[in-house]
Amino acid sequence: MNENSIYISVVIPLYNKQNAIAATLQSVLAQTYTNYEIIVVDDGSTDGSAEVAEAILQECMVYSEECRGKVIRKANGGVCSARNRGIQEAKYDYIALLDGDDLWDEHYLEEQVRLIQDFPEAKMWGINFAEMCNGEIIRKLPTGLPDGYRGYVANYFQMAGRISDLYCSSSVVIRKDVFDRVGYFDERIKYAEDNDMWFRIIARYQVVFYDHKD
User: Fold this and answer.
1) What DSSP line would sit under 100-164, residue for residue?
2) Across-strand partners of 9?
3) What is the pLDDT of residues 8-38, one digit of tens each?
4) Cα separation of 149 and 70, whole Å?
5) How far apart are CA 54 and CA 179, in angstroms?
6) What is the DSSP letter of 87?
7) 152 exposure class (CB count in 10 Å sphere: 0-12, 13-18, 19+)
8) How far is 47 from 101, CA to CA, in rounded Å?
């Protein structure tokens, strides 16, 4: 699989994150891998979140022909409905989810593309994540996998030593066609809705995890 043939749709659900969305979008625009589009789905924000996102993407498109992004506005329906709308609007075969107040390392998409190339039988690829404060890691939960693990995850539901889910809604890439088979995010669920999705995918397909250390 040629790296240049992999295009990613970045789906960002947004609700009242006026003070965070600018940094989130800048972390996407700073990626070393540039074959992507950005879809921000504003879920009926009551602050200036949508306007901030639109201004950043419009400025980007003025200065770069490669910048592809849009903001979709919808009535408030919850994060699941926002993610689902973004996935449905996506043009590309790979969906990268990112919450409106999280940040990516500049090499994040580059690392994800390498995982897709190296482990093509998978349908979901995840990279570890951490809670940060002022640029310092304040919490990183044990995975139950060997230190620095990179590969397919076997016997996920029988893993020992894992105290949190391996996958986070801001650090996974999923094949778009998977949603046609396992269903979209369940809009009835208000808590841990992302775990419900991961478990449905894991129960049916191979998945990959990378305990990235840099």
Assistant:
1) TT----TTHHHHHHHHHHH-TT-SEEEE---EEETTEEEE----SS-TT-EEE--SGGG-SS--S
2) 37, 95
3) 999 999 999 999 999 999 999 999 999 999 9
4) 36
5) 27
6) H
7) exposed
8) 14
